[in-house]
Amino acid sequence: MKKILLVLVICLLLATSCKNEPNPFLVKKNHIGLLTDSTQVKDLDAIFANDSVVRYIAGDEFTGSVNTIEIFDKGGIKLLDLSPVDALDSTSVISTVRIIDDRYKTEQEISTLSTFGDIQNAYKISKIDNLINSVVVSVDKINASFTIDKKELPSSLRFKTGEQIDEVQIPAKAKIKFFMLHW
């Protein structure tokens, strides 16, 4: 009887100790770690309880600007920039997440340390936008856009903003400057 009770206690301990914790650095289409597309601004302090949440209050309601919320880890390293749908509204959801830290990775291991070639191998590219100082590569599968500095492009493409840039024109070794998720 004692052996059965001991086995039962051990099984219960093993079952309760095997929690399946979500990866706080996993990037998917509708969430980043515990942050989801339905997370409200008021919930950020609970989600990032071990980190630092920095909110800037614009103070000028006439500007209509969105207040960026910055997330830093306990060591002071910047992790994320969050933009809510409505500025100064604690019930607003997050619309855009700018991923700064290289620990954040997609299921295909794409991070800020990745290259354009890595993105091409992992995802189907939906669109490429040619901006003044950068190129933005959009991937609809994960609602992400990857920004590449034009310094990574051949010199013939660096100063042309009106022309469409094709996938084949971007070098595979071009580094990602940062990437964003749009919800």
Write the layout of secondary structure elements.
Elements: H1 2-17, E1 26-27, E2 31-32, E3 35-36, H2 44-47, E4 52-55, E5 69-72, E6 78-84, E7 94-99, E8 105-106, H3 116-122, E9 127-130, E10 134-139, E11 144-149, H4 155-158, E12 178-182
Parallel strand pairs: 1-8
Antiparallel strand pairs: 2-3, 4-5, 5-6, 6-7, 7-12, 9-10, 10-11, 11-12
Provide structural commentary.
By secondary structure, this protein is α+β, with helices and mostly antiparallel strands. The chain has 2 domains: 82 residues, no CATH class; 76 residues, no CATH class. It is 17% helix and 27% strand. It is built from 4 helices and 12 strands, in the order H-E-E-E-H-E-E-E-E-E-H-E-E-E-H-E. The radius of gyration is 21 Å and the shape is globular. The N and C termini lie far apart (57 Å).
Give a short synopsis of this structure.
By secondary structure, the protein is of the alpha+beta class. The chain is 17% helix and 27% strand. It is globular and about 80 Å long.
Widest sheet, order of strands: 4-5-6-7-12-11-10-9
Mean pLDDT: 86
Uncertain segments of ≥5 residues (pLDDT<50)? none
Number of domains: 2
What is the 3D shape? globular
Give Rg in angstroms: 21 Å
- Individual helix count: 4
Largest sheet: 8 strands, antiparallel
**Distance between termini?**
57 Å
Count of DSSP E strands?
12
Compressed to H and E, one letter per element, the order equals: HEEEHEEEEEHEEEHE
Helix content: 10-25%
How much β-strand is present in the residues? Answer: 25-35%
Query: What would you call the structural class?
Result: alpha+beta
